[in-house]
Design brief:
By secondary structure, the protein is an alpha/beta fold. Helices cover 40% and strands 13% of the residues. The protein is built from 15 helices and 8 strands. The protein has helices spanning 24-31, 51-59, 72-81, 99-105, 122-126, 152-158, 161-172, 177-190, 196-206, 209-215, 220-231, 233-247, 261-274, 306-311, 340-344; strands spanning 2-5, 41-44, 64-69, 89-93, 111-117, 248-258, 294-296, 319-325. An 8-stranded mixed sheet has the order 1-4-3-2-5-6-8-7, with helices on both faces. α1 packs across α2 (51-59) and α8 packs across α9 (196-206).
């Protein structure tokens, strides 16, 4: 974890055109009631290029923003974009599963709102040399933090067949995981994989044509699975979400944008659990420690309107859930997140290219 301080030069703007983040206005509508009081703290756990944070800073003129991202390039661009709010902005280079230790290091006992816009950001998808996009031939990297960890090429070239099949099946929900693994193993024995173009060619020749016609680009699921594994996304989210809920003050709110069924399932389960009493139904009086401590703010998962999807096709798979903390409860002690190498080979997830 590295705290990089406030944003860059005042009035600075990123060179790239600004991408409007998914469901920006709805996210602000959900979180703003918790950010009215002077000095209220909003934590953006996936800052990206700062689009949601900018909207919060504009709508909540006395709120303080903590922006977290594992991608240093994203932090640099967001710092430039948000430079005019430097006195209310703190940037932190870290993975969001370090949430508890980040909050503790900033001297915060509680926070008032948090947002997680999960998955790969637009910045990462659009930078061709990062290897996230299957439509462009590029090095097979896929690390959100390029300063540490294994690459997608490492996964393809070194994982045992059984483990590679599991990753493709579980993280990519790929029907042809075993068949793809067999083809990968045969090809890597001839020459290691280094670029996305070669992998896409293999997938085109391996996945049946009928499935390619009905299921979209043949690289979609495999690339998702590799990215999830490289960045340990599901494991990080399973740690970060309860930590963020723990950190909420009573009246605090949390919003989550998911783009994949696995990450949305984690979110749904955690928020539903917090909004449901754990007391046996036949108790005449509900003990306080068993009472629900969350109130759901969305009915199920909200989807972007058709007009937004038309303007930004990457928003199509987005699902938004939100909740409010309505009661205090036991909080976990802050703990340091495991090192990147330890994190990387656990369950990971998501598809994101939407943070703006």
């Amino acid at each position: 974890m590295t705290t990089t301080g406030t944003a860059g030069a005042e009035g600075g703007e990123p060179a790239a055109p600004r991408h409007v983040p998914v469901l920006r206005d709805r996210v602000v509508e959900l979180l703003r009631p918790a950010l009215i009081a002077p000095g209220a703290v909003y934590v953006d756990g996936t800052l990206g290029m700062g689009g949601h944070a900018e909207a919060i800073l504009q709508a909540c003129p006395t709120a303080r923003v903590v922006g977290i991202d594992r991608d240093q390039d994203a932090l640099d661009l967001a710092g430039a974009r948000l430079g005019r709010y430097a006195d209310r902005l703190t940037l932190v280079h870290a993975v969001y599963d370090e949430f508890s230790s980040i909050i503790a290091s900033l001297g915060l006992a509680t926070i008032d709102a948090a947002l997680f816009d999960l998955g790969v950001s637009s910045l990462q998808l659009d930078e061709q040399d990062r290897g996230f996009a299957y439509r462009v031939d590029a090095p097979l990297d896929m690390r959100m933090d390029q300063s540490a960890g294994i690459t997608a090429a490492d996964v393809l070239n070194s994982y045992e067949p059984r483990e590679l099949t599991r990753i493709l099946r579980d993280y990519g929900e790929e029907r042809f995981a075993r068949k793809i693994t067999g083809a990968v193993v045969r090809e890597r024995e001839k020459e290691p994989f280094t670029t996305s173009g070669r992998l896409v060619e293999l997938l085109r020749s391996t996945i049946p044509q009928a499935s390619q016609r009905s299921g979209g680009h043949p690289g979609k699921r495999t690339f998702q699975a590799l990215r999830i594994e490289v960045n340990a996304e599901l494991a990080a989210w399973e740690d970060a979400l309860p930590a963020a809920v723990d950190a909420l003050a009573v009246g605090g709110r949390i919003a989550v944008l998911s783009y994949h069924s696995l990450e949305d399932r984690i979110t749904k389960r955690a928020l539903a659990s917090g909004s449901t009493s754990s007391a046996p139904p036949d108790l005449p009086v509900e003990p306080a420690e068993h009472a629900a401590y969350l109130r759901l703010l969305t009915r199920g998962a909200e989807e972007p309107p058709e007009a937004e999807v038309a303007a930004n096709p990457r928003a199509a798979s987005a699902r938004l859930r939100a909740a409010e903390r309505v009661a205090a409860g036991p909080r976990r002690s802050p703990r340091a997140a495991p090192p990147a190498r330890a994190r990387r080979s656990s369950s990971a997830a998501r598809t994101k290219g939407r943070r703006g």
